[in-house]
Amino acid sequence: KWRNLHLEKLYRAKNYDEWISFLSSLLNIKAAVISDASNDLDSIR
């Protein structure tokens, strides 16, 4: 039983890392879009 618990912990930790990388990639995409948009605004001005 302890081993199963341990595996579950590892699995959760792995999922957590995946979530973090997923979220950070989303944030990076958002940041890139925002910087592109502000660059466009600058070029319009």
Question: Any overview of this molecule?
Answer:
This protein has 45 residues and is mainly alpha-helical. It has one domain (1-45). It is built from one helix and no strands. The chain has one helix at residues 2-44. The longest helix is centred in the middle third of the chain and has 43 residues, at 2-44. The protein is rod-shaped, with a radius of gyration of 19 Å. The chain starts with a helix and ends with a helix. The mean pLDDT is 83. This is 6019_t:CDS:1. It comes from Funneliformis caledonium.
Give a concise summary.
This is 6019_t:CDS:1. The protein is mostly helical and 45 residues long. The protein has one domain (1-45).
What would the keywords be for this entry?
45 residues; mainly alpha; 1 helix; 6019_t:CDS:1
Give the tally of structural domains.
1
Shape: rod-shaped
The secondary-structure class comes to mainly alpha
The tally of strands reads 0
What letter string, H or E per element, gives the SSE order?
Answer: H
Average pLDDT works out at: 83
Q: What kind of oligomer do you see?
A: single chain
Low-confidence stretches: none
**Radius of gyration, whole Å:** 19 Å
The proportion of residues forming helix, as a percent range, comes to: over 70%
Can you summarize the main beta sheet? none
Number of separate helices: 1
Distance between the termini: 65 Å
Strand content: under 5%
Topology:
Blueprint: H1 2-44
